[in-house]
């Protein structure tokens, strides 16, 4: 099983909807094919997230939103539920796929988390090519930053609007679960701001073979404050269904902080759920040869995978 999300969103324009839908379905299919060929859950979630980082429709990699200076700073994390090994990076620039760097932190260092200059030096040492920062900047995100500055003034992000992230959760044929999350963060964010996405400590995601795996999206500061990922898995540990766990944790964040967001969850038996409190959340899931997808509440399409 693999489930992917393209970030909670205040709304997605009609013109963009089809591109977003195709992108999210493509990511789920790539991840599912990795699983089908006997690949690990970690390989599958990384593969799916790379597809989304390479798609300018999503707020990660080459579609990342811009900070107050008009630059791209990206965060990402990944976790293996088998042994709780994890890797994360924050405030990284000038690389195409932060999730690849997070995976290398997990696999090639004794640490969990590298940031900024340290992450950049490690990327160079690992042979990850540097790309010019402007290659990650899209026309749409330049306009979004200008609009945000006009409307809000600097450094006052709107927790109803700034919700985009991408992520994936998976269960492989050996019973291992994993998650991956990647983001460009919040439009007009302060230089050096880090959100929930790279914070494995139960915010941006979590994976434990004994429970399941989760990736979160939404207003990062709210997610950090309630430890959204671990909170949802706590409810699963307490015997709640995936749906109940998702609703309880998102409901708590909304009532306590007015924070909106979404979660994708998979458990150790292959059950899965997608839930969100934002207006929409592009998602796709693949299981037993079927691909499910949707963007708005109550909308699910099902297709057969070749």
TrEMBL record:
Site feature (Cleavage) residues: 164-165
Pfam families for this protein: Asparaginase_2
Molecular function terms, GO-annotated: asparaginase activity; beta-aspartyl-peptidase activity
Amino-acid positions noted as binding substrate in the UniProt annotation, renumbered to this chain: 193-196, 217-220
Reaction catalyzed: L-asparagine + H2O = L-aspartate + NH4(+); Cleavage of a beta-linked Asp residue from the N-terminus of a polypeptide
Active site, per annotation: 165
Protein name (record): Isoaspartyl peptidase/L-asparaginase
Source organism: Loxodonta africana (African elephant)
Gene this protein is translated from: ASRGL1
